[in-house]
Amino acid sequence: MGKLTDALAPYLERLRDYYSQLSSRDQRALLALSIFFTVLFVYFAIWHPIASWSTKQRDDYLYEKETQALMVANQARARSVVTTSSQSAPTKDAASVIASSGKRSGLTLTRVQPARQGVSVWIDEVPYQKLLGWLIDMNEKEHLQIRQIRIDRTEQDGVVKVFMRLSY
């Protein structure tokens, strides 16, 4: 700190000399201008960023509080929907559902193999748009979800080779 004050001492001395040579009216104007710029600096460098951050945090808190209240209010309803759907839906063999759905969609499934984490499906050649429609149907109608998928290009445009793992 001593080195800094030693380095700034000549400049501060010049500023004091310049200020003392000003008329009293100019000194008051310079003082008022200095106060004005100090207030502006404090407002824009400190107060405004903190106030903006505080407002954002309060809005986030209120949003999370509303979300939590909505979840608490609908918790019983969600539990009843889950228990009714799990009781009413018969358990289906995912491999047979996938195979029959593929045939209905006109897809030639190369291999369908049950695995520990769902059902693995290989398709050697399929138009991408047809695959996409089939996957949407599987999700919406059969409630099967894609756990893993790898789509590779083939020589033909718009035709792909696919490996995927589906499960309930």
Describe how the helices and strands are arranged.
Blueprint (H helix, E strand, L loop, with lengths): L1 H20 L2 H50 L1 H14 L5 H12 L5 E5 L2 E10 H14 L3 E9 L5 E9 L1
Antiparallel strand pairs: 1-2, 2-4, 3-4
Describe this structure in words.
This protein is 65% helix and 20% strand. The protein has 168 residues and is of the alpha+beta class. The mean pLDDT is 89.
Number of helices: 5
Largest beta sheet: strand ordering: 1-2-4-3
Distance between the termini: 68 Å
Structural class: alpha+beta
The helix fraction, in percent, is 55-70%
Q: Please write the string of helix (H) and strand (E) elements.
A: HHHHEEHEE
- Flag low-confidence runs: none
* Range of strand content: 15-25%
* Shape call: elongated
User: Roughly how many Å is the radius of gyration?
Assistant: 35 Å
Q: Count of DSSP E strands?
A: 4
Q: What does the average pLDDT come to?
A: 89
The major pleated sheet works out as:
4 strands, antiparallel
TL;DR?
The protein is of the alpha+beta class and 168 residues long. It has helices at 2-21, 24-73, 75-88, 94-105, 128-141; strands spanning 111-115, 118-127, 145-153, 159-167. 65% of the residues lie in helices and 20% in strands.
